Each structure stands twice: as C-alpha cells, then as structure tokens.
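Dear Dr. H.,

I hope your travels went smoothly. While you were away I took the liberty of generating a structure for the chain from your last submission, since the lab meeting agenda had it listed for discussion. I wanted you to have the full record in hand beforehand rather than looking at slides cold. The sequence, exactly as received, is reproduced here:
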Amino acid sequence: MPEDQDTVFCEDVIYSEDYRDYIKEYFQDFSSIIRTYQPVCIEAVGGRYAVMHLAGETSMQTILEDYNISMIPALYGLLDTAGLEDTGILYMHRNPYLNLRGSGVMIGIIDTGIDYTHPAFVYEDRSTKIYAIWDQTVREGQKPEGFLYGTEYTEEQINQALASEEKLAVIPSVDENGHGTFLAGVAAGRVAETEAFSGAAPNASLCVVKLKPCKQYLRQFYGLMTGVPAYQENDIMAGISYCVGKARQAEMPLIILLGVGTSSGGHTGQSYLSQMVNDVSGFSGVCVVTAAGNEANTRHHFAGILPQGQDRAEAEIRVDEKEKSFSLELWAQYPDIYNIGIESPAGERIDRVTPAGGKSQTIRLIFDQTEIFVYNQQVESQSGQQVIFLRFRAPTAGIWKVYIYGAAAVNRRFHIWLPMQQFISEGTYFLRSDPDVTLSDAACADDGISVGAFNNVNNSLYAASGRGFTVDSRIKPDLVAPGVNLSGPVPGGRYGIRTGTSVSAALAAGAAAMLMEWGLLKGNDLQLNSHKMIKYLTLGALRTEDMVYPDKAWGYGRLNLLKTFHELVTGRR
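The corresponding predicted structure, in token form, is as follows:
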C-alpha cells in the first residue's frame, strides 16, 4: 500500500458500489500500476498481486478494451447442493502408535464464516479451537494487520465472547448461510458422542475468513441471478494471504480449504486465484485443498470440435423463460482463433460478430428485444488462449444457436461454459453438453489437491461431481472423498446433512491435516507440502480393478488414509 494512501478512505472505497475492483500482478512496487491505471486505492495481496480500486466512471468496457478480462474478479459460489470409517481416518484417531487428530495443525476456512459458539468448535474447558476470525463484512472493529477492511477477532476475544452471557455483543460475527460452519466442522469439528459425530481432524486449530458479498457491478457484468451468494476472487485471494500469515504467526503448518467455486475461466489453472494456490502450495508446511465443483450433470459445458473440411460448428442453448440475464465464455485452445455468430429463437441472425481483439460491441436484436454484449480477446494474458465473453440481457426463452467459425483453427477445439448452477436458471443449458472438463476453475491449479465426491454407502460416484481433465490435459481431480449425506454442525448448536464436493474437500482437508501432523510435527517428513501431499494421498487411494486410472471423474481413486500409511510406514500393499 502506498504510504500516502488514506486507509480510512480506502476502507470506504472497498465496500462502496461507486468503486470497482480489479486484480493485477505487480513487480517490486505499485508505481507502474499507479501511473497506468490511477487507482484511488490499491492493496497488495500475497506479495505478487494487487487489487486496485477505480472510480465507477471507469467503465468495464474501457478496462476490457484497454487491458485484460482476467483483471475482472471472477465470481465464486458455494459448492453444495458417514465417511470417516471408510476413509481410514477413524483408524488414525484410534491407533495408539499414530494417534493422529490434527494436533498442532491449522486449517483455514475461507467461506461464509462460522458459528463460533457451536459446541463443535469449543473444547471441554469452554475455550475455543479457533485461532482467529477475519470477518470481511464487519467494519466496526480492528482490521487485520496488512489489510484495509473487515474486522479481526483473536482467540482471546473469542474466549471472552464464549464466557459472556451476550456472546454476539462481544463478537457480532455470524454465519447466516451455514456453509462455512458445516465445512469447518467436517474438517476439524470436536467429537460429539450424542450425535455420533467427529470432524476428520478434531484437534486442529481453525483460521476462519468470512467473505464479503460481491459488488453489484460484478453481478451485472456476469448476469447473475439476484439473491444468490457470490464472492469476489480478490477477496478469496486476500483470505488465503491472511491464513498464511496467521499460520506463520502461530508457527503451525497450514491446510487451506476452498469450498467455493466458479465455471468462469479457461480451466487451465492459470487464473489469478489458481496461480496464488500454486504460489502458497510450494511452501513447506502449506497445502491447499480445492473442491472439484458440482457441475458434471448440469449440462453447462460444451466441448467444441471444428470438423476437418468445415469452417463452422454450432452450439445450441435452451434458455429458460425465467432467465433475465446470463453469460457464457468461449475459450479456444492455443493458437486457434474463432469468430462467432448468433441466431435467436425467433430466427433473427447475426453472422460473424467480429469485434477486434480486445474490443467489445453490444448487439440489440429487433424481434427478440434482447441485448447481447460481446467481448473478444484473441490472446488472454494469463493463459494465451482466446476468450469470447457473451452476456445476454432479457433473452427470449427458447433455443439459441451460437455459431463458431474457425478464423485460424489448428487444434480445431474450443470449450464453452455457462455459469455454475447457482448463478443461472435450472432450465438454461446446452442441448449437446459434455460432462467432462466441468471442474471449478480453482480446482485446475497444479499444486492444489483437487477433490471430487462419491457416495461411500454404495461406492458410486456423486453424479454432479466435477470431472476433468483440465483443458491442457493435466490430471484433475486428484482423488474423490465421501461427499453424499455427510453429517456436520449447522448454526444454532445443531447438526445437519449436506452433500457436495465442498463437503468431500473438507473431509480431505482434515485428512491432510493429520498427514501434516505425522510429517512435520512428528518428524517423519520435514519438507511436506502440497506436491508431496498429492503424491501420498493418491498413492494410498483405493482403486477398482476393472477401472483405468487416472479417471476423469475418480482421479486416482478413493481417499483412504489408512492405505496411505500402509504404503508410507509399513510398505504393505
């Protein structure tokens, strides 16, 4: 942050709808960014990235045309819709020689917050197992050191609140949704005998980040449905940076759990958030676990192939009558270049919409009264791919056709993604869809542990579990974990049931915490990080004899910590 920057004013800017947020890499200092963009405020995230805040009169179109679509924060949503025994985790708890419960390890939860009063997060002596909470939505308290917004609550303050009759008067941070509370419980909740519940790593400490809701300009840009929880990429990145700092302060190894996801991006692991996952995963004692997403059966992905001898392919989209606005993204495999055409349900056709690279145009259809914003960037700076972004406002219900023309097609392959299921009407989908390459974009990061979900009752795949591989053919997801009808804490001291890959990722995060305890804290592997964690967990994954691995849905198999330790410790198969 520049020394002359007014931190109080910047906090107002961060929350204000009159200012817009953009992400940019920087080198050494902010000077070049300040000269080029003239932001009213700028903040560093993780030592490599900057979030700059520009006045609202700086239009999105100007940013797109002059710079890069990756600068616009992607929007992330929640990935929801008795696994401990089957994963070998309970054996680790009970084994007198191992006795692994995540002791001395921190798990970072970047999500909707936490019900810190829930018994799952309180020790027998009524002290908290939460090391710190950063609530990005609360402005009245002390901001975390190095950050310009939100309020931090320390372990000491949480204990004071727990001892008070009016707990929320001391710490007013709540989890209105319950998603973060549930994931924190699955990963690290205390044993509740009466509920037959235990978190995977019940002795692990927690660092919790409650994400603030996204700004309205981003909802409008992506055409999001109203009322749906959505969070900005830059706030998630800031949450990662915060958790890393807290782990260093506490001198603890760290597992970061990302139970949020998005269908935006090129699915090559090169978004800003994915790169940050890779950055921190290289540290000894740090591991990032990402949820694969729940998009495999939503029909939101179109895998395009331009047939030899033809210059056009066609994608058909059924648009629900309730759809008020939606977007889609076409990403072309390097070095291909494409143009698009559009045909409405009424038969109104626009051939070869060809805005120059880095430019946009708005098309207003006559018969359908639909407005279509088209942006074309021939070489996206993070991935080198072409990206074409379309946003439909007031789309006519029915079948829309998108024609894809090969202007310079070598690979002759491209992909189109609709938004994730929470961001779009259920009745809007591709007529000819492909369930592969439906991972959340962050789950494509090289060095994060990408986790899908299966039903441990019958060993069947959870149908919605995001499938790989990545666009550039890397193996993701890494493995699957139980994620169907798992029990966990919900706000108000109760327990409930959830399903989804965020739940399976939480279980895997707890398993990773136990492995980190074994490696770093018990001296069995003092260089343990995400690279080695992926190797260890996939080494021990259970595999079905009649299936070829790695698999696009199952990765290297089903999480089984017991088999991992058999491989590492005893050498038995």
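Two observations you may find useful: The chain has three domains: 7-58, 89-296+441-543, 301-430. The two ends are 53 Å apart (CA to CA).

With kind regards,
E. W.
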